[in-house]
Design brief:
Mean pLDDT of chain B: 91
Pfam families (chain B): CopD (PF05425)
Helix content of chain B: over 70%
Largest sheet of chain B: none
Radius of gyration of chain B: 17 Å
Strand order of the largest sheet of chain A: 1-2
GO cellular component, one term (chain B): membrane
Low-confidence stretches of chain A: 10-28, 185-194
Structural class of chain A: mainly alpha
Largest sheet of chain A: 2 strands, antiparallel
InterPro entries (chain B): Cu-R_CopD_dom
Strand content of chain A: under 5%
Order of helices and strands of chain B: HHHH
Protein name (chain B): Copper resistance protein D domain-containing protein
Number of domains of chain B: 1
Number of strands of chain B: 0
Mean pLDDT of chain A: 81
Number of helices of chain B: 4
Low-confidence stretches of chain B: none
Radius of gyration of chain A: 21 Å
Distance between the termini of chain B: 25 Å
Oligomer: heterodimer
Shape of chain A: globular
Number of helices of chain A: 6
Order of helices and strands of chain A: HEEHHHHH
Structural class of chain B: mainly alpha
Strand content of chain B: under 5%
Keywords (chain B): Membrane, Transmembrane, Transmembrane helix
Chain lengths: ~190, ~140
Amino acid sequence: MVEHQREREDLGEGATETETARDGKQISTRPVSLVTWTLATFDTTLFVLLGVLAAHTSGELAGLLAGLNTLVGVAAFCYLWALFVLAVRWVNSRVALGDTPFRTLVLHGVAAGCATGVVFLLGLFAVALVPTIQRGGVRLQTVLVVLLIGGAVAAVVGGVVGLVASLLDTAVYRLAGYLLPEAGTKRVTEPRRQ
Amino acid sequence: MAALPIRTLHVVAMAALVGGTTVLWQSYRSGAVTSLAPARQFEWLFWGGVGVLVFTGVGNLGTLGPPGPGTDWGRTLLVKLTVVVALFAGSVVRTLLLVQASDREDTFDDLHPAIQRTLSRAYGATAVVLLGIVVLAEVLAHG
C-alpha cells in the first residue's frame, strides 16, 4: 500500500517534482501512480473490448464502426481514457485497495463512475451540440431537457460501470497479493552483470 | 487518410510490447537483472501500449469493415478478441504483483529469487500470448 499512501500524500500536499525514494535517491514523481495508470487503462480497454465483443457477436460491429470517423473514435477513446485515469486516481487517493472495507471501495467506485459518465456525456454534448446551438439550429430548452435526461442515464450507466470496475480492480489487486511469493531472508547476492 | 498512421501505430505498439516482455523474461530468467526498477519502468510503457493497441485496433476494424461472426474471419476475430481480454486480465495481475513486491521488498535492488522467478514466468507467459496474438493478426490480415 506504499504506492497508494504516496499518492494520497501527493494529492494532499500538492504534487512535488521530486521526492526521496526509499533507497535515498531522488526520483521524479508522476501525477499518477503505476497502480492508477494500470487499473485505469485496464478498465478502459476492457470496457471498450467487451463492447466490441458484444457488437461482433451480435453481428452489428461493421454497421457501428462504419458510421464512426477514425479520428473522432480516437479522440473519444482518449477522452474516456483520461476520465478513467482521473476517476481511478480519485478513488485511490481516498481508499486503499488492499485494506479498505469492501463497501467503502464499492461506494467510491460507484460515485466515481457516476461522475465519469456525466462528464463523458457533457464532453460529447459540448463537441456535438455547441456549434449547432451557436448557429441557432436547436432551441436551448430542448438541449437542457436532453441534457437532464441524458445526464441521468449517463450517471446510472457510469455507476454500474464504476461498480463492476471497482469489484474487478479489488479482485485483481487481491489476487496479485495472493500470488506474490513469500520472500524469506535469502537474497540474490551475486554481482549484477554489466 | 488516417488508416496508414493508425495501422503503423498498431504495429509499433505491438512490437514494443513483444520486445519489452521478451527482454524482461530473458533478463529475469538469466539473472542479468536483479532489480524491480526496469520492470516498473516497462509497465508504464506496457499499459500505454495497451491503450494504443485497443484504439488503433478498433480503428483498423472500422477501416476493414469486419464480416459477421459466422464467417471464418469473424470466428478468428472472436478468438483474437477473447485472447486479448485474457492477456489484459493476466497482465493487470502481473503489474499489481510487481507493485506489491516492490512495496514489500522496500527496495528496488537485491531482488529475492522467488520473486525473480515469478516475474520471469509472468513475462514469459505474456510474451508467448502476445506472439499468439501476432499469429492471429497475421491470419486476419493475410488469411
